[in-house]
Every structure is written in structure tokens, then in C-alpha cells.
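Review form for a predicted model. The reviewer records the input and the model, then writes brief findings.
Reviewer: anonymous (R2)
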Amino acid sequence: MPAEQETLAPLSTPSRAHGVEALFSHGRLVAIPRKEARREQLLVHLAGTLFERERSYTEREVNEALLTVHEDCSALRRYLVVAGLLVRPRDGSSYRRGR
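Model under review:
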């Protein structure tokens, strides 16, 4: 009996379907989540994978990075700024990683 129990997965193992990777197909974002909590997970992932902490980016560079995952780069850029994951001066001249 103990051998059979070893082959069972622990009940607390989170399903991969609930991870951010479930939002992607072939490296592309399928859709921007409408639910705020799910979108926040995505945005944290994008900020962490596409943008370096101590680097300044132009709007064009931000757009180019976001276009690698989804065609609506302006929506993603706006969500990242509103969430504080990208910060910019009032004139919009540059972007940096936030929190």
C-alpha cells in the first residue's frame, strides 16, 4: 500500500492551468484577462520577463517588447503603468520598471 501512495500527486500541488503560462500559446498571449487579479498576475510576469530593473526605455522600446507577446501593446503598456509596474515622467519621455 505505501508504494501506491507514493505515486499519487499531493493534493496541494497547484494546477499549471492556473499559472500565467496558461494565458499563452506558442509564446504569444492569447488574450488580456478581464479579471483584475488575473491581469495583475500577467502584468507582473511581463514586467519581470520583458524589462530590466535599472534600465530606462523609450516608448518605442516598450512597445517593441510588448509586441513580442501581443498585438495590443498600447493596452498592455497602459495597464503596466496604471499598476505601477512601469513608471514614466509626466512628459512620457521614458519608462522604467516600478515596483
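Findings: The two ends are 49 Å apart (CA to CA).
Further findings: The beta strands are 24-25, 28-29, 56-57, 86-87, 95-97.
Recommendation: see findings above.
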